[in-house]
Amino acid sequence: MSIDERVMGLIAREQHLDRNKVTIDSTFEELGIDSLDGVYIMFALEEEFRISIPDSVARQMKSVRQVVDDLTRYLENPEAFKAEAAAPLPVKPAGDTPSGGAA
Amino acid sequence: MRRVVVTGLGVVSAIGNSVHEFWAGLLACRSGIGLITRIDPADLNIKIAAEVKDFDPDRFFTPKRQDYLDRFSQFALVAARQAMEDAGFQPTDEQAHRFGAVIGSGMGGVGTCETGYRQMFEKGAQRLHPFTIPKMMHNAAASHISMEFGCKGPSMSFTTACSSAAHAIGSAFHMIRHGQADAALSGGSDAPIVFGVMRAWESMRVLAPGGADPKRACRPFSRDREGLVLGEGAGILLLEEYEQARARGAGIYAELAGYGATSDAAHLTQPGSEGPRRAMQLAIEEAGLNPEDIDYINAHGTATLTNDANETFSIKEVFGSRPRLVVSSTKSMHGHAMGASGALELIATVLAIRHGVIPPTANYTIPDPDCDLDYAPNQAREKCVRAAASNSFAFGGLNAVLVAKDLDFAGSR
Q: What is the dihedral of CA B289, B290, B296, B301, to 10 degrees?
């Protein structure tokens, strides 16, 4: 199965969504996936693909295509992710809230 | 002084998942205790508990919502829905800001916690489910209730072992009485029947073994009592300021009139008598009543050797050596639901006032010279209950007593 099929299947399964509703162009927002759900999808992806997604990369994943692109990139060259993880975090724009919400 | 009334009730318990079934079970002296089914009890020494039965989360929550809900939050939400429906309360925007959720839990999402530990220590998982923290936190039940019912006023959780629900309800009562809120969903919830918790309780040597007939395992105040039986469930009450309840034409079960909270400040597990005595006295005093106005006490009554004798002694210190009031322990039927017990028992107390029937102490067989009160043994008793108390005394010496009364009963003071 291709990566995009696996990703879409995983998102549908873990979010209890109809598989047909999830397309390569779906954004997380359209699918009703909030920040906490997004964290869970990263966890499920890590389990499914036996990888470790750096926090800085995970935070940017907001759509199916982005997930597929990032994963494809990673599976072709795992070192690229590691380099991104080591890079300093971008400065947060004012008003942005951390994805986990208030602790 | 503002008055606080009970206008809605909700129950998930070992003897039924509705107020109706719960009350019918208590009056029929029906025990909800049996062999443990939720986990494999093969490796446990104590194989009995008071489990909630026929609770199918799919009936109440979408699969996606279930991902966020530990069993203790599910119980609390289901009981809260019952209480809201019972009360017919639909808060306006303005009322929502003066509406809180105050929920007790002894162990919170301990099942979620154990699942995480198993993943880590048994299976060597390097990552845990990202909902582990929001599911297991003790305030999860209060938060979910506030979200579902739009409680935008003060919401919080209480963790004081067996007194959790009573402290939560007492604090919600004071919030409303003193004008910080006009309504609150309040009570307690716990789902502690998981392997690690059972093993830890076993080690304390206070659990009843059960023997041939698990239904009879919990025998409060009876000389042959052998200890407590761990339970689970939730009890939630809708408390409202009296004028608000009256203005919207709500049905009123009873008035919540007094709350006494004290600490033994002595020993982690050995109860004292001064703390319980003072808690009862404070609650009766706040209710504007005298001890002789109290017709019924729903006892803490755990069926441990120590509690029952100590509680009897404390009651006699307040009410005299031969009081005419009736005392019963409904834990003999619904088990010790930990952080939910104070709420389940206040609900039983409120229903006793409402219906003029005292629920019995089940499995009472042999009188104990150290427990010589009228415990309504084995049979519900019709009796006018004008005012009643519900006792909760926690490990750690933290005592909470709630006094409820008939709305029209003025007392003898």
A: 110
